[in-house]
Design goal:
Blueprint: E1 3-5, H1 10-24, E2 44-49, E3 55-63, E4 68-76, H2 85-99, E5 104-109, H3 111-119, E6 123-126, E7 138-143, H4 154-167, H5 169-173, E8 177-181, E9 185-189, H6 204-225, E10 231-241, E11 249-254, E12 259-260, E13 271-281, E14 284-296
Parallel strand pairs: 4-5
Antiparallel strand pairs: 1-2, 2-3, 3-4, 5-7, 6-7, 8-9, 9-11, 10-14, 11-13, 12-13, 13-14
């Protein structure tokens, strides 16, 4: 279990700065202490920790002007790279920047992390000459708008939501919207007012539909991530209702819940996948869905 925290205790701060030094300074033979600067005292720090409290990923936000925020010192433990923790840090820092009134965020990136930030919606404003200087940094920028609040693959999410509303009309009627995608988690919301029953809570069928579509959406995006093609269909689904949904509903599906073998698609064969999602009332899970999905391989001509 991982969570994003603000390091505050001496132990948390020591782990935070140690990871920053090990990843960003030690490889270049820089001494301890070089991982800190004058903005650390006024910056906002976030850290992903595991169940044991160990530092997995870190990042800092500070303000250059009241309207311009900057993300710096992004780092992930080498053994945990590719697990989506960097996206979790960027997401947390972007939410903070929006809440503090930032209009845009800037980031300086070397070649090895450039693709990651582009996937997070940042645009290259000044391209560095990395031929002459391999350690030179590109300057990226992201203007904060309501349309790019989705942190990862925002363009894919916009396309997916448009497809839902056009080809699955009930999703538009229910007010289902994509709230967030981090590459590892996919979150949706729905309108309680459009799905209310005689008890003033969410209709059970609507809960089922929201939970199903959330799994379907995560699987669809994962196919794109892996450059695989196929039509996703639900073969079987089971849901457990624990408590009523009385507030604006949201649902989350995590890639960690997925079992199955998508590689069958590369052989022209159908793939079978199991995915789970939770429907939440506020922040408390009140329904749990397990879906058996089949990805139909494209027929070869």
């Amino acid at each position: 279990m991982y969570q994003v925290i603000t390091p505050t205790t001496p132990e948390e701060l020591a782990a935070y700065y140690d990871l920053r030094w090990r990843v960003l300074r030690q490889p270049f033979q820089r001494p301890r202490g070089s991982e800190q600067d004058e903005y650390d005292q006024v910056g906002y720090h976030r850290m992903v920790v595991n169940a044991a409290g160990e530092a997995i990923a870190i990042g800092r936000l500070h303000f250059n002007t009241p309207e311009e925020a900057q993300i710096r010192f992004m780092a992930s433990a080498p053994e945990h790279r590719g697990e989506g923790h960097g996206v979790a840090i960027v997401h947390a820092l972007e939410k903070l920047a929006r809440a503090e009134g930032a209009k845009h965020i800037v980031i300086n990136s070397r070649d090895n992390t450039l693709g990651f930030y582009i996937k997070c919606g940042y645009e290259v404003m000044e391209e560095a000459d990395t031929v002459q200087n391999p350690l030179a940094e590109h300057h990226l920028r992201k203007t904060l708008t309501q349309h790019n609040r989705i942190i990862y693959r925002a363009d894919w999410c916009r396309e997916l939501q448009a497809t839902w509303h056009e080809e699955i009309p009930i999703s538009k009627t229910m007010g289902i919207c994509i709230e967030q995608y981090t590459g590892r988690e996919f979150e949706t919301t729905a309108s309680l007012a459009r799905n209310i029953n005689v008890h003033g809570t969410m209709f059970a069928g609507s809960i089922y539909s929201l939970a199903t579509l959330t799994c379907w959406g995560l699987l669809h995006l994962q196919l794109r991530e892996r450059q695989l093609q196929g039509a996703v269909v639900l073969a079987d689904g089971q849901i457990q209702y624990h408590k009523p949904v009385s507030q604006e509903p949201r649902a989350i599906s995590r890639i960690s819940s997925m079992t199955g073998d998508l590689s069958m698609l590369t052989l022209g064969k159908n793939a079978r996948v199991t995915l789970k999602s939770q429907v939440l009332d506020n922040d408390k899970p009140v329904a749990e869905f397990t879906g058996q999905f089949v990805v139909l391989a494209n027929s070869k001509k």
